[in-house]
Amino acid sequence: MINEDKLDYGTYEATLERSRKLEIDLRKNPGKYKVLTGDRPTGRLHVGHLFGSVLNRVRLHKLGVPTFIVIADYQVLTDRETFDKIAENVKGLTVDYLAAGIDLANGKTFIFPHSHVPELNQLLVPFLTLVTNAELDRNPTVKEEIIASGQKRINAGMYTYPVHQAADILFCKGTVVPVGKDQLPHLELTRTIARRFNDRFAGNKPVFPEPQPLLSESPVILGLDGSQKMSKSRNNAIMLGADEDETAQLIKKAKTDSDRNITYDPKNRPEVSNLLLLISLTTGKKPEEIAEEIKDGGSGLLKKVLTESINEYLRPLRIRRKEIEGDMDYIREVLSSGVSAAREEAVKTLQEVREAMNMNL
Ligand code: TRP
């Protein structure tokens, strides 16, 4: 019997507090941890990804923490009709990671698509037996995604992808998962699966660690419509690969409000505050300070300042991106060595899992 009581999301503040402590220890003992993180290959990266997660990953692997970046290509099938661009997007995403500063030279950082790691996927089967339908049904992020995708008939992959995500994290015994707030329910489920697996199958020899979330200190970046998180599918994103004119055009269309005097007030003025936040992230100045400088310059000046600061900030990244994009053989090599490294880990873990479940012959 599964004891459902333990699936507890806890408060955001408590999670943040734990995450801060973890951050301190990571700096002291980077070798003690293993980072697992990832994205769906639904298109290229945007500014929300960059500040929400990618820069955090860059920082972590530069501390010397071994890092696996999973490209969750199967997950795309849960909420999209089309699949013709998946491989292209996997490669494109890899280009974006490398351009943003993910550096594979230390031999401890790997990028791989999970569809190429059979032993990882096989973990899904036992994991599915460790959660209840009711638990899957309550996942707030999945609920939101169902609404956002407009699906009328929901496929079972949609309900179960958080369990698959647990396999993404646990196949290599990942211990630290840098995530945004929306991924916390998935991580809680992963922790629950690890615990239940150990309790049910592993007796006094636990197989899985309970991975911890590492929250990015940068708040959720909203899209240019100011009402929901930045996302390509919601058509409100500044893409890393957009050129400077496209970026200017997009920002011109960003939603603001009718108050000419610019102030930083995320609660009452989410649209304007989000634009100020983006300027802050790309200049290092405080949002309040920027608002004070713009004052009654209105949304026209606000947008002008944002366009300049974003384009300037992204310029070197965009140049690197173009260079790397020209060398697809290199990208294929990066992915193929990522797959080999991931498989090596997954084979070992699956072996232990089978042993724990009394399935080794
Ligand atoms: N669900 C994540 C997203 O939509 C992507 C993802 C898949 C992931 N597997 C993961 C994130 C494992 C962290 C760890 O962004």
Task: Provide keyphrases for this structure.
361 residues, mainly alpha, Rossmann fold, Tyrosyl-Transfer RNA Synthetase, three-stranded parallel β-sheet, two-stranded parallel ribbon, 5 strands, globular, binds tryptophan
How would you characterize the overall build of this protein?
The protein is mainly alpha-helical and 361 residues long. The protein folds into two domains: 4-218 and 328-356, 3-Layer(aba) Sandwich (Rossmann fold); 232-325, Tyrosyl-Transfer RNA Synthetase (Orthogonal Bundle). It has 15 helices and five strands. It has helices at 12-28, 47-63, 73-76, 86-100, 118-122, 124-128, 133-137, 140-149, 156-170, 184-202, 244-252, 270-283, 287-294, 298-325, 328-356, and strands spanning 35-39, 67-71, 109-113, 176-179, 212-215. The strands form two sheets. A three-stranded parallel β-sheet has the order 1-2-3. Strands 4-5 form a two-stranded parallel ribbon. The longest helix has 29 residues, at 328-356. The chain is globular, with a radius of gyration of 21 Å. The two termini are 26 Å apart. Tryptophan is lined by residues 36-40, 70, 72, 75, 165, 168-169, 177, 179, 183.
Short description:
By secondary structure, the protein is mainly alpha-helical. The protein has helices spanning 12-28, 47-63, 73-76, 86-100, 118-122, 124-128, 133-137, 140-149, 156-170, 184-202, 244-252, 270-283, 287-294, 298-325, 328-356, and strands spanning 35-39, 67-71, 109-113, 176-179, 212-215.
